[in-house]
């Protein structure tokens, strides 16, 4: 599951390389999450093995979530080093918050068969990615 997510994440980074700062970060988020939601293998896994899938995908002690958080934090630091992103929180904490919000909107509703809410997640993530004035 992580390799699928990572491939989609890397593609989103490449596709948004012409952007910078929070604009790029939100574009990467949208493309990555929309691609995940549309991935047939992930949909099948969530439908056929819902509880196991949620445990594997969202557990802090597992391998998927911590690696996803790390990749996202690295991207935040990359934009921060470039001077185009001035986060209000530590990149690691911010990445963890973004991942947890995303999980709530796209995975946890699998239990009750509710469609993933990518736009709602993106609205919350845009608030999390709001920057300081860049003093």
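^ Assign residues to that structure.
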């Amino acid at each position: 599951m992580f390799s699928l997510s990572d491939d989609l994440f890397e593609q989103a980074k490449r596709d948004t390389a012409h952007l910078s700062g929070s604009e790029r970060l939100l574009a990467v988020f949208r493309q990555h999450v929309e691609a995940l939601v549309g991935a047939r293998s992930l949909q099948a896994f969530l439908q056929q093995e819902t509880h196991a899938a949620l445990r594997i995908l969202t557990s802090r002690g597992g391998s998927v979530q911590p690696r996803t958080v790390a990749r996202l934090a690295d991207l935040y630091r990359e934009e921060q080093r470039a001077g185009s992103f001035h986060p209000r929180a530590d990149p690691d904490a911010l990445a963890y918050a973004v991942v947890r919000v995303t999980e709530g909107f796209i995975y946890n509703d699998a239990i009750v068969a509710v469609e993933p809410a990518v736009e709602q997640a993106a609205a919350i993530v845009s608030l999390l990615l709001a920057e300081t004035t860049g003093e």
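The chain has one domain: 2-128.
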